[in-house]
């Protein structure tokens, strides 16, 4: 892993910055997806982590970028399949 990536992950680990929260969100979102319950909510819970994954690999560890693209593709595919749940987010309110 490149040095910048190691420094970034070391800082997250050393400060314990959001690690329990991120772990809990990943587990809860993953279980919801696998069980097929509240899938749109699970996608919303996981979306910030998916964005972080893609940016981490784009800027700090390009070696993992292919797998990150797969993760983003799954997120986008599932969001597209459940687009009716997200449609109100893209309406201009009056």
Determine the oligomeric state from the structure.
single chain
Strand share of the residues?
A: under 5%
Main sheet, how many strands, which sense, barrel?
none
Rg calculated over all Cα atoms = 15 Å
> Spans with pLDDT under 50 lasting ≥5 residues?
none
Mean pLDDT: 92
Tell me the distance between the termini.
Answer: 49 Å
Count of runs of 4 or more consecutive helical residues = 5
H/E element sequence: HHHHH
Shape: globular
Helix content percent band: over 70%
Account of the 3D structure:
With 94 residues, the chain is mainly α. It has a domain at 39-83. It is built from 5 helices and no strands. Helix 2 (19-35) packs across helix 3 and helix 3 packs antiparallel against helix 4 (65-81). The longest helix has 21 residues, at 39-59. It starts with a helix and ends in an 8-residue tail after the last helix.
Question: In short, what is this structure?
Answer:
Helices cover 77% and strands 0% of the residues. It has 94 residues and is mainly α.
Based on the model shown, name its key terms.
94 residues, mainly alpha, 5 helices, 77% helix, 0% strand, globular
Q: How would the blueprint of this fold be written?
A:
Elements (H helix, E strand, L loop, with lengths): L2 H13 L3 H17 L3 H21 L5 H17 L1 H4 L8
């Amino acid at each position: 892993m490149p040095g910048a990536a190691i420094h970034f992950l070391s800082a997250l680990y050393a400060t314990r910055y959001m690690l329990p929260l991120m772990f809990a969100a990943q587990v809860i979102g993953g279980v919801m997806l696998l069980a097929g319950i509240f899938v749109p909510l699970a996608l919303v819970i996981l979306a910030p982590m998916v964005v972080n994954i893609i940016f981490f690999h784009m800027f700090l560890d390009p070696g993992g970028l292919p797998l990150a693209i797969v993760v983003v593709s799954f997120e986008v595919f599932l969001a597209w399949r459940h687009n009716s749940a997200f449609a109100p987010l893209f309406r201009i309110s009056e």
